[in-house]
Amino acid sequence: MVTNLLDFNGEGLAELCAGMGEKPFRARQLERWIHQSGEADFDRMTDLSKAFRDRLAACAEVKPPALISESVAPDGTRKWLLDVGSCNAVETVFIPEVDRGTLCVSSQVGCALACTFCSTGKQGWNRDLSVSEIVGQLWWANKALGATHKTARAITNVVLMGMGEPLLNFENVVTALDLMLDDHAYGLSRRRVTLSTSGIVPGIDRLRDRCPVSLAVSLHAPTDALRDVLVPVNRKYPLAELMAACRRYLDAAPRPFLTFEYVMLDGVNDDPALARELVGITRDVPCKFNLIPFNPFPNAPYRRSPPEAIKRFRDVLMAADLVTTVRKTRGDGIDGACGQLAGQVQTRTRRVFGKGSSAALQ
Length: 362
Ligand code: SAH
Ligand code: SF4
Prior knowledge:
alpha/beta; 19% strand; disordered C terminus; 12 helices; elongated; two-stranded parallel ribbon; binds iron/sulfur cluster
């Protein structure tokens, strides 16, 4: 069987190389070729011995998911659609800003959690992404951006905010996180890698113990009654338990606060009274708020809150000394905005693979 080296973190590569009788520094060289130079051809890894390269070629490969398409929005946001087999596709979005470049990475094909405002949730869960499919998103983006960004590293931040619930694909996600943080791979600072979760309480605790990165929690409502509707997994992990897990996480977090995300839905969760309740429930959790104007998708049951409502809501949080930002909607023209990612995949997949093959994403 051929081993895909993109499925291994640094430790795994070191073990693999040791098994082949190679010194640890060879594993690190190999890792840099794969992840920093984006090299998939062992023959071009010229500082490895010919014998080692031949042995690698006989049993291993560097196989990222195949690239289906790349699109660039007028604001510079780029989106890559990657083929993950069986007519499934996942999306990765790069958002360039003046002082940083953020890559939004997917962790699953679809999502089982069925949040009512989320296009990915509407599709249902298809399967978890493998390590190589998660890391492959960075691999492709790094390679594509390397062609245009000659000087500094293009990707400075990664957010696990694409398709899927990362804490429900725990092992593969943390192995991919290892590579994001590894100086011989993507070398990102722990503070600049953010995992976003809908609030999987045991997963938050495991992440704290295994690989604490910056955490964003999708809150969306200050009461269990409303959150039960918007984020159905709240019935399993209600707000009091979630807030307790957030407090525990902060003991190990790379920043002394976490971020609460709050999608702004017109007339549903945008009343200033709810903002006051939010202040109450987050009192013991050092945090920032990120308000996300709802991104519509076909047949969505909600509308985006008007700008005045978002401002009123923000003002209540700020008056209580909570740092609050309103997310700028990026990548709209290419359906690359939050929560829009899955919506168009089926149709694109259908277009790319021909009629009748879109069932895989349902
Ligand atoms: N499953 C994880 C991460 C992926 S979703 C989570 O739920 O946190 C990433 C973010 O996009 C979440 O905060 C989610 O609530 C938000 N989101 C989902 N659908 C959206 C939509 N239609 N408009 C705006 N934000 C949305
Ligand atoms: Fe899944 Fe996150 Fe979408 Fe909820 S918001 S359905 S958890 S991807």
